[in-house]
């Protein structure tokens, strides 16, 4: 048997060239904008999106897929490169166009493009659209970040199992049009979708190709296509720029680093990670810096919302130590869920933050709940202590997490075992968009959480979180829905509202 490929050779083995990547961001000067053959009708069936905003621009995204659910994962596109034009304007009618450009959608990247627009004005609303041949995309709205900033609104969402229910949360996020959306992982799920087993979304069906656990690049692409056909997800993408991190189901349940919990040897599991990470890049609006190199992707990154907020986006999957084998291993000072390099990066960013608020967004819950929740930060208590100490030396900290399919509001204690310990921040845990179906207001796990005086809310229905930051306070609404399985028409209800003063990191119920 030949030796397994090195990380350096993964891109070549999967047929991805540097040229294909580069032209998917920006076409060479003088490139022809006319396609070599007619572009199929309905090429923008997966919608448009923007992400990773900065003070002078953002990333735009679309993927040409006129028939998104064909089983080869190419969305019905021929195996030809297609020039895609884009426009950015200050008005939705495109009378004041401020940027035009061209990117090339190639079959190597499933005909996705990721143009990065720069040179715009800060703290401004912009509109954008794409054209491929005679096909015109829907119009998207996005915003640049402020240089100073006095108010910033954002929604947090996670865990959108399409097969468990409708994306009503995304419908309401689109209605409210926040300044940004934080998506905290589990954008797709890898499980096989089987009617009568886990297909709870009423009124839909899927073919047998969706009934197996996904493993190949083509299968990951197809699964993204299925989820992204949802009109409410498309609407939420089209209304605001997104900050995205991944958790486990973008690859496989409860994986960590090169380790699968389902018996796949590490030298083979990195193949799975490589194709999963690539499909993630192809289907979401992240910058070129986040393009994976085989099974390695640079997803942690930092943004400043003027001096109002510093945002850190974490990767708590790719670098984590394996799950502990015993209690001595669990409490070891050397254990990390972030890896040494990312830890240093986070602590430096917090230490030197100029902002009133320090927002840290990751996939899994930080608060201490039970010692047997080792897949969360409870499995990495020494790393958690280091993070809390760094938060305690910075301005008011806000941790945004998801994963557990429950709404939780928690105060972050420097020492969770000591009720009198200083509170260094708050944690806002958003419930799932779709995972686990309708849910209930409470369930059998409520006592695990509510036994702790620092946990101020536990709710087990589906929904999202909406927050508003100002110089003086943060106001947070936990929004849920009475049902999601039957249809997407349930009315939102605010199950709890909290105020957090900028100089006093606590959760005050309103």
From TrEMBL:
Keywords from UniProt, A to Z, are:
Signal
Q: Which SUPFAM superfamilies match?
A: Metallo-dependent phosphatases (SSF56300)
Q: Does the keyword Manganese apply?
A: no
Instruction: Using the record's annotation, list all stretches that form the PhoD-like phosphatase metallophosphatase domain.
Output: 154-478
Instruction: State the Gene3D superfamilies in the record.
Output: PhoD-like phosphatase (3.60.21.70), Purple acid phosphatase-like, N-terminal (2.60.40.380)
Pfam families xrefs: PhoD, PhoD_N
Alphabetized CDD domains for the sequence:
MPP_PhoD
Q: Which PROSITE patterns does this UniProt record tie to the protein? A: TAT
- Phospholipase D N-terminal domain location is 46-144
Asked whether the keyword Signal is assigned, the reply is yes
Endpoints of the signal sequence: 1-31
Q: What is this protein called?
A: Alkaline phosphatase
Biological classification of the source: Bacteria, Bacillati, Actinomycetota, Actinomycetes, Propionibacteriales
